[in-house]
Amino acid sequence: SASSSIFIGSRTDEPTSMDNLFGAGGAGGGGPEEWLRSLPPITRIWLGSTVIVTGMANLDFVKWADLALARWEDVLGNGVSGKLEAWRLITCFLYAGKFGFNAIIGLHLMTQISNRYEKMGPICTRRIYIPPPNNDRTNNNENDDTQQRQQQQQRQRNINPNHSPYYPRGESPDYAFALLFGMVGILMTQFLLLPYLPSSLSSHRHIFFHRHLTQYVVYIWSKQHAHHRVNLFGFPMEAAYLPYAYLIIGYALNNGQVLPIDNLHGMFVGHVYYYLACVVPSVLGGGRAVLATPMFLVDLCNWLEGRNVIGFGRGGEDEPVLADVDGVIGG
To answer: Relative to the CA of 134, which of 160, 181, 192, 271 has its CA 20 to 30 Å away?
Structure first.
């Protein structure tokens, strides 16, 4: 759009234009359908499901209390209804609040940040696939295996010269995995960590986590594209400072009396994800990592984008298992 300029494709640490976070973000003068189709797949699914769930709750088609997650007992079937209500694990992230200014701003921020993160290239956690060495010992020479392993390591360095176990550029499957990690991390820390914090920090128990997940994406986007220039309500800054700007805004909106725990919670889980995805592999070395995007997410996103489903053990001897790594995602 005319009011929003972002970089799609290769990453850059020195952008030459300002990214207006609260620009219209439209589809070049097209209608709502064209704009929706311009969004990459994961952002489109997240936005659509959030609008549907929020709308149904506000129009009383469903009770908002049936969407919330206040206790594990409600999920496990030990709650008031006595029935398994596993949908709460998902719907608690999809309710943006009552119709009003805050809900509109929350949905807009979610869409803008998610769209940028997915299109600009999310943190990649797809492991580089290298076929295992041939274990046929007919030549009765273990040097062959050693040579094959060295060739594998060299091919991995050719794919990513930074000695990373991952492909050099992230795509929609990596973003989907990041969202799943964030949802699990937010719920685990909500019930296993926050109750043990000082009462001044944990007195307000959240039962919906839409803002938590949005701030989680804001944080990992700011770490992935730290030097990207953004414009927040007329104030230019680097993306690295964006989560803290939102933290200050949230604190100000609470009249300086209550810390925005939803912001802090999302940032904390985002930092855990960034540490495991980007810092730990460089410390471990040797192409080792603790996170890996599941292949079913790769196949699902390829199907959503009209590309071939790859599956396990495919790709041949000379190619990585995921094709079109450098292609532009979505839209």
So the answer is: 160
